[in-house]
Amino acid sequence: MxxxxxxxxxxxxxxxxxxxxxxxxxxxxxxxLKLDKLVKLCIAMIDTGKAFCVANKQFMNGIRxxxxxxxxDAVVETSLTKFSDSLQEMINFHTILFDQTQRSIKAQLxxxxxxxxxxxxxxxxxFEKVSEEKENALVKNAQVQRNKQHEVEEATNILTAxxxxxxxxxxxxxxxxxxxxxxxxxEILKSMLSFMYAHLAFFHQGYDLFSELGPYMKDLxxxxxxxxxxxxxxxxxxxxxxxxxxxxxxxxxxxxxxxNVDAAxxxxxxxxxxxxxxxxxxxxxxxxxxxxxxxxxIQNNQLVYQKKFKDSxxxxxxxxxxxTVKHCEDIERRFCFExxxxxxxxxxxxxxxxxxxxxxxxxQTSIATAYREKGDExxxxxxxxxxxxxxxxxGNESKEKLLKGxxxxxxxxxxxxxxxxxxxxxxxxxxxxxxxxxxLCIECSGIHRSLGVHFSKVRSLTLDTxxxxxxKLMCELGNDVINRVYExxxxxxxxxxxxxxxxxEKEAYIRAKYVERKFVDKYSMASxxxxxxxxxxxxxxEEQRLSQVRASVHTAVKxxxxxxxxxxxxxxxxxxxxxxxxxxxxxxxxxxxxSVFLDSKHLNPGLQLYRASYEKNLPKMAExxxxxADVNWANSDEDQATALIQAVxxxxxxxxxxxxxxxxxxxxxxxxxRGPLHHATVLGHTGQVCLFLKRGANQHATDEEGKDxxxxxVEAANADIVTLLRLARMNEEMRExxxxxxxxxxxxxxxxxxxxxxxxxxxxxxxxRFQQDSQKF
Length: 777
Description:
Layout: H1 7-12, H2 15-69, H3 74-143, H4 149-246, E1 267-275, E2 293-299, E3 302-306, E4 314-317, E5 324-328, E6 336-340, E7 345-349, H5 353-372, H6 374-385, H7 389-396, E8 403-404, H8 406-413, E9 431-433, E10 438-440, H9 442-451, E11 458-460, E12 465-466, H10 468-476, H11 479-486, H12 490-493, H13 503-515, H14 531-562, H15 605-614, H16 618-626, E13 634-635, E14 641-642, H17 643-650, H18 653-661, H19 676-683, H20 686-694, H21 709-715, H22 719-738, H23 747-762, H24 764-776
Antiparallel strand pairs: 1-2, 1-7, 2-3, 3-4, 5-6, 6-7, 8-12, 9-10, 9-11, 13-14
Helix pairs in contact: 2-3, 3-4, 4-9, 9-13, 10-18, 11-16, 15-16, 15-17, 17-18, 17-19, 19-20, 19-21, 20-22, 20-23, 21-22, 23-24
Membrane topology: Peripheral membrane protein
Domain Arf-GAP: 406-527
Subunit structure: Interacts with RAB35 (GTP-bound form); the interaction is direct and probably recruits ACAP2 to membranes. Interacts with MICALL1; the interaction is indirect through RAB35.
């Protein structure tokens, strides 16, 4: 209820004025109590929500652990991975909701209580003080005697001055009351409206996420029904088999033992045998019979045994062709037989006479077979005695400084075309698609969410926080640039853009524009030039290319000695004009001809993206993606280098961010085993190293020389990159030891990465200076 005080009554200081003051002051006091209570409840809700998010993350990590454990079951692993990824997205949405709640309810209302209500209280104190002084002046004026002219004049003057002061302060007090009463409505409604919009965005995102997951869940449900039927069928078969085996006569089981010389696994016969010690005492261990009972097998013309399945087999007889086997009846134990070789003999004991006969026959048959197949078996023994190269090869493969609110809105809307919605033209858009680099109205942003994050990633320009490299990416593109690509044929086709408010028309138009790409000018491009064309074009460019490569090698080495080279205009880390990802690391004689030097008319979308990534040309990169380029396309002519690796070589932080936002794999490596993080470390690009670590790059991966990024940075004495890598590794170990999977890390780690991100995007010359200073020392 809005309560105001009349200014005229204030001048009269009437009882109505005093009554109104009393009523207003009581109302304000009650309002303060209500707001304090609401803020406390909001804080409790946010704390509980954060605790819920932490517990939810731990639960989600448990699902991921279960998925990794189920790696041998593709269905379970894929399903659990998809579900854990979706739950991670919901955790992110929850986190965003709580952050926006803190800004809209806690921050705004607390500011209202601390600022506006404090001013009201201060004005009230002054009013009460001057009111008391006025009362004292009136009493004194009334008490002065008529014949004391001097006291009369003094009392009159004091009363006049006090009344004047009272009226001034009383008017200010009434003004403060009326302003407060007017402002309270807007402040309360503004905070609550922002809070409700945060909920709206949260439920929109959750709905879109699970709508996209819905078809997969439906298919999984149908597959699960089949699995249940198959499990019931397997259960019946197992029960039947169990019943059949249970009915067998185990007393005669020994007679059914068989040996198979041609067994697929090479094992002729296997089973438990007791073995007499081969020392001088020739004793059987009576106290610990498990010490002499071993699992024996005949395989590959050898007699071997092992105690446990994972133990390496111990060879008793190297070559059965040189052995004989015989019964042993002259010792106190039963069922014994001896295998004799030219160098030693082995006394063994079976569990029954039938088992002994079976083992003796198996050994004799193996000896005969070994003689018949002497040549082939010798070759097999040679192969077994030397480790294969294949096994060796397989063993070798074993809180940021963010921009938010009106600051991000103003900067992005300054880009040409961004002052109106990219799809419908509505003015003052407050949403953005970060992977496309465009601004959107709230209605179009909802439609973009429904497309899925693989087509458009929507973020608020006023409610969300913005990393510096992401904001710089938005400023590099814009509605005009993207519409020139995605609406290239719009006028030729005679299609008009939908108007604001036409929801169905918008949905059809946006889907046709970004999903079906009907308005993209699909010019003809050859998938790949022929080998003859490559040789002709490459030959004409050979001299120029070799000179560029030599210059790049010289400058790259110089860069490792003196620090990274970065421009101060756009945050790009400069590199000499070279194209090949391997030209910085390979000898000149081993370099392949690069298809990047071919004429642009031969470029397929993947190669166009590859080339534009090095050239730091974001419009060309967006155009290549619109033409269907695979963001993870690898150039077979240049050691499987990717567009992201080319962006590293080009030295542009924004280009790397654009590729990552569009699904580039931050851990995809070239044939030398080097991923983007390796290349950024070699070239000393500190900003890119920071970006890749934030985006989940694996810093433990090693290249073909066995070097990980940290060892490369240490060799190059690059203090900044060594610091980043060690901090990231330490933070990772701390999170693993404390079980805080998915947590961003401690405050020190976050602060340092904030500083590096801010400098890499806005003040790259500082990184350059710090790098040069570190080299001096």
